[in-house]
């Protein structure tokens, strides 16, 4: 879940661009395995998570990316608070906020830090993107002639140095253009800016003076994608565990109701067959299968199937713990994100995203 369509364009486009640089998979988004959903505003993110998760037994894995501002803080608090039952919409460790210490390795020119996703874009590329946007949609403004620099956008040369960048890089660049070009009504559209950033990355591929900016941008987004990847894998594991546990619990509860004090080996073999038939091909499901295979020795299931289980309480205990086996194993897996290095190769940007991104890229 993302705040808006410009986030969707930047994430999909830059991930694809990094793919053309032969960046490792751990530092990119696999757009064949994750759907980027813009909520249409940060306040809508919790509600969309609620709708996506629903009340079904099997629910989709969901993670969220939020800005590092007050609105992002409020949205995160709403996700923690949850719905009517006061249960978090998703676990807090599946939410990534740009201000999280996990992203402290990001380099940004904004003195206010990582307020919005555009703050991961170096000022040089942001100004070049604004110039491209104006050349296409506001030709009366010659951005290169304005001589925009980090100082004029964020520093002492800005109109209000203390406030410059408080709302993010786009707002700071927009305010600088308004002031220097004397165009009070100028607006830098976020979707148009995102498209322009992707175009500029292609144009700068052969310009050595901008190579440092390209490397900084690549490092920033590789760090972001690495952190998102950790959450994506954790969310998928959690849902796989819940799905497996739900199927086990249904079969277990029915078995324990019907066999309170006694059960034959044949009954247990049929239960194993029933549970195995409902499991998928996930690692968590394979852990459950392996555990049930051990029951053949523990409860002598390969002997006369008509004989009763000697220790029914031991069997009940094994059944109760079976559903939590995947959770224990998943909890022991490492969740540290991969830390990228500052380098980038040459390549051509290709947008490889879903239909929504293609439609957005065709709009001004």
Topology:
Layout: H1 5-20, H2 45-53, E1 64-66, H3 70-81, E2 95-97, H4 123-137, H5 143-146, H6 150-154, H7 169-181, H8 190-203, H9 211-258, H10 265-278, H11 283-298, H12 312-322, H13 325-331, H14 355-361
Parallel strand pairs: 1-2
Helix pairs in contact: 1-8, 1-9, 4-7, 4-8, 9-10, 9-12, 11-13
Task: Provide a concise account of the structure shown.
Helices cover 52% and strands 2% of the residues.
Structure write-up:
By secondary structure, the protein is mainly α. The protein folds into two domains: 5-232 and 338-361, no CATH class; 244-331, no CATH class. Helices cover 52% and strands 2% of the residues. It has 14 helices and two strands, in the order ααβαβααααααααααα. It has helices at 5-20, 45-53, 70-81, 123-137, 143-146, 150-154, 169-181, 190-203, 211-258, 265-278, 283-298, 312-322, 325-331, 355-361, and strands at 64-66, 95-97. A two-stranded parallel ribbon has the order 1-2. Strand 1 (64-66), helix 3 (70-81) and strand 2 (95-97) form a beta-alpha-beta unit. Helix 4 crosses helix 7 and helix 11 crosses helix 13. The protein is elongated. Residues 343-364 have low confidence and may be disordered.
Percent helix, as a range, is 40-55%
Q: What is the gyration radius calculated from CA atoms?
A: 26 Å
Sheet-strand content, in percent, reads under 5%
- What is the β-strand count? 2
User: Tell me, what's the shape?
Assistant: elongated
H/E element string? HHEHEHHHHHHHHHHH
Give the domain tally. Answer: 2
Low-pLDDT residue spans: 343-364
SS-based class: mainly alpha
**How many alpha or pi helices?**
14
- What do the pLDDT scores average to? 86
- Terminal CA distance reads 23 Å
The spatial strand order of the largest sheet comes to 1-2
Largest sheet: 2 strands, parallel
